[in-house]
Design brief:
It is a single chain. With 312 residues, the chain is α+β, with helices and mostly antiparallel strands. The protein folds into two domains: 153 residues, Rossmann fold; 117 residues, Elongation Factor Tu (Ef-tu), domain 3. It is built from seven helices and 15 strands. The strands form two sheets. Strands 8, 9, 10, 11, 12, 13, 14 and 15 form an eight-stranded antiparallel beta sheet that branches. Helix 2 packs parallel to helix 5. It is elongated. The chain starts with a helix and ends with a strand. 29% of the residues are buried.
Length: 312
């Protein structure tokens, strides 16, 4: 009797351990799935059904992923704008994040569908120049041309192809299964600032205008410091001239002065270094419905030039 009970107890213990292991495995798998982030960056806007269709397609493949909208307000087919937004957003996401970029995504012999592993994250995009701007500092760990799912013939490849690739990766799938190695990224270079021969002038360009109407240029803080070398300067943005660059929006205010005596008011023009250490022209606490943004007030738009002149 004792031996039988001992055997039964042993089997019960093993079964309990096996059950606990099984539950633990299921729990860990669910946790891994829940930790998988898929981001969406598109030029689809929010009026139509396109964005919700993308999300529905993803959830139909994998209900446990987390979907994050980076932006759906990219100007139609604007490669540089899409690259700027995704480049400044992805760095805040954890390793293993999967980014779907639905801008100018229709496949052709000159616009292949690609997935790259870059800086520990995955980017699914057409070969339209966005990826070359994104990876201009160092090379991707892996580039694959997507062959899988290309038999689905429609004009919505972000949904029919990109979402399936993203869910394949989220399940732990191998990139080599869905395509072949690729090494011909379409190169589109960002417009670089121009410095004159005697280093008294930087000519930069507007590369982005944000939701507030603030103007973001391609002139970096590092470039201004290196070329300026502590010299006095002035920034010329069409009619506006700035002789100081602030490090934050609030630094335009001298908080030691009583509020009623301050000269600075909402809508005041200012130059500052933004969170990406790029030169930005902004209006302090502007109301777009009244003052407008810096871009509309100064009559400046995408790719217009900004000048910085240094005194000898």
């Amino acid at each position: 009797m004792f031996i039988v009970l001992k055997v039964m107890l042993s089997k019960f213990t093993k079964n309990s351990v096996a059950l606990q292991y099984q539950k633990s495995s299921i729990f860990n798998n669910n946790i891994n799935n829940l930790m998988t982030i898929i981001t969406l960056t598109t030029d689809y806007g929010l009026k139509d059904h396109y964005v919700s269709s993308l999300k529905g397609a993803i959830f139909s493949e994998n209900k446990n992923v987390t979907i994050v909208d980076i932006s759906h307000q990219i100007d139609p087919f604007n490669i540089h704008q899409a690259a700027y937004i995704i480049k400044n957003a992805y760095q805040n996401f954890p390793e293993g994040t999967i980014h779907i970029i639905g801008v100018n995504a229709e496949v052709s012999i000159e616009n292949e569908h690609l997935v790259i592993l870059f800086n520990g994250q995955y980017f699914i995009c057409a070969n339209n120049g966005i990826l070359s701007i994104l990876t201009d500092t160092f090379l991707p760990e892996k580039i694959i041309e997507i062959n899988a799912f290309q038999d689905i013939k429609d004009n919505f490849p972000t949904k029919s192809v990109f979402t399936k690739v993203a869910c394949h990766i989220a399940r732990g799938g191998n990139l080599d299964v869905i395509g072949k190695p690729f090494d011909k990224l379409k190169e589109i270079k960002n417009i670089a600032p121009v410095i004159n021969a005697n280093k008294t002038q930087i000519i930069g360009s507007i590369i982005y205008i944000d939701h507030y109407g603030n103007i973001i240029t391609n002139i970096s803080k590092t470039l201004i410091k290196n070329i300026g070398n502590e010299r006095d300067f002035q920034i010329i943005a069409r009619r506006a001239v700035f002789k100081k660059i602030h490090n934050s929006y609030n630094s335009i205010i001298n908080f030691e002065i009583p509020e009623k005596d301050r000269a600075i008011k909402d809508g005041e023009k200012m130059a500052l270094y933004n969170s990406n250490n790029l030169l930005e022209i902004a209006l302090y606490k502007s109301d777009l419905s009244h003052e407008g943004g810096a871009s509309s007030l100064l009559g400046l738009g995408y790719r217009d030039r900004i000048f910085i002149e240094f005194k000898n």
